[in-house]
Amino acid sequence: MNTVLITGGTGYLGQRLLPLVAERAHVVATARNPRALSRLYHPEAMDLCDKACVFERVLAIQPQAIIHAAAINPGVDDARMQAVNELGTQYLAEAAHQVGSRLVMVSTDMVHDGTQAPYADEANPSPINDYGRSKANGERAALAANDNTVAVRTSLIYGLDSMDRGTAGFAERLAGGDTLSLFADVLRQPVWRDALATSLLRLALDFPNETGIVNVTGSDVLDRATFGELMLDFWQIPYSSKTVEHILAADLPELVGVPLNTEMSLVRAHTLGLPTPGVREVLANHNSVNLAGAHHATHD
Ligand SMILES: NC(=O)c1ccc[n+]([C@@H]2O[C@H](COP(=O)([O-])OP(=O)(O)OC[C@H]3O[C@@H](n4cnc5c(N)ncnc54)[C@H](OP(=O)(O)O)[C@@H]3O)[C@@H](O)[C@H]2O)c1
């Protein structure tokens, strides 16, 4: 059986990736703190900031493929973001190259400035915030260090079996009596965690010659306010027009670093038959969405 090493096994995406990949491969799950990982997935400690540790682990495990889902997301200090997203990714790619491993790296739509949508798969990064810069630099480092690398640019990740961080934050603030102000002009392509995990697995094992950059998101382009409310409705969190207001990011000149429209074209994902169901389809059919590679595009 092939061995697949997964970084970020304790993260929101990683928690879904582990059981899915384990259906087809021997999984070694890594995180900084492996105590939070199930013993089912052969947990290993691997701090991406520790170059020697990354090389030692990868050389010992000799994975056929690595799915790199660890990252520091926005909201944490910039130095750690650069250390993990940029340097950690580079160490991992260098180690992968040394043992001939395929690398599937999870990237983000935040590498774009939001003014030139829709962005093609190979669109040059134009980040306007520290997170986007760290991920764009991580992509560049990974692609340069290991020629068998594919970087997957994705968008807001949500699940229907476990609440995503954004919705959890909204729920907490509503429960605390706050009013939410949600952007009605910030456009994203939310991606169902199960569909993204399926695509990452398929890119790792089924498409060994696909390299470069692939956009993998949901097919629906939604503004942040609409998506936020769809998630609040799904999780049955009470709100009203008094507790959730819609605002325009464009009206806030002091707001910097929020790309307005990061829509990305899904041409390559659809050519490969990767699943990209839109939010509305997932919500309507979440027990029976076809993840086998059907083409669900509404926006190509
Ligand atoms: N969430 C989204 O909406 C979204 C949108 C677009 C792209 N992405 C990308 O998707 C991927 C997964 O995101 P996520 O939301 O699932 O992440 P997450 O829940 O924040 O999890 C991050 C993971 O990274 C690990 N990690 C952090 N620092 C580390 C270090 N120094 N060494 C090793 N592991 C470390 C964490 O392990 P410890 O707990 O042990 O530190 C954790 O397992 C990331 O690449 C992210 O940039 C996410």
Description:
This protein is of the alpha/beta class and 300 residues long. 36% of the residues lie in helices and 17% in strands. It is built from nine helices and 13 strands. The protein has a seven-stranded parallel sheet, with helices on both faces. Helix 1 crosses helix 6, helix 2 runs parallel beside helix 3 and helix 3 runs parallel beside helix 4.
Biggest sheet, spatial arrangement of strands: 3-2-1-4-5-6-11
CATH third-tier fold name of the domain at 3-157 and 191-215 = Rossmann fold
Mean pLDDT: 94
Class of the domain at 3-157 and 191-215 in CATH? Answer: Alpha Beta
Short description:
The chain contains nine helices and 13 strands.
List keywords for this structure.
Rossmann fold; alpha/beta; disordered C terminus; 300 residues; binds NADP nicotinamide-adenine-dinucleotide phosphate; 13 strands
How is the secondary structure organized here?
Elements: E1 3-7, H1 12-22, E2 26-31, E3 44-45, H2 51-61, E4 65-68, H3 78-99, E5 102-108, H4 130-145, E6 149-154, E7 157-158, H5 165-175, E8 180-183, E9 187-188, E10 191-192, H6 193-205, E11 212-215, E12 222-223, H7 224-234, E13 244-247, H8 267-272, H9 279-284
Parallel strand pairs: 1-2, 1-4, 2-3, 4-5, 5-6, 6-11, 7-10, 8-13
Antiparallel strand pairs: 9-12
Bound molecules: NADP nicotinamide-adenine-dinucleotide phosphate.
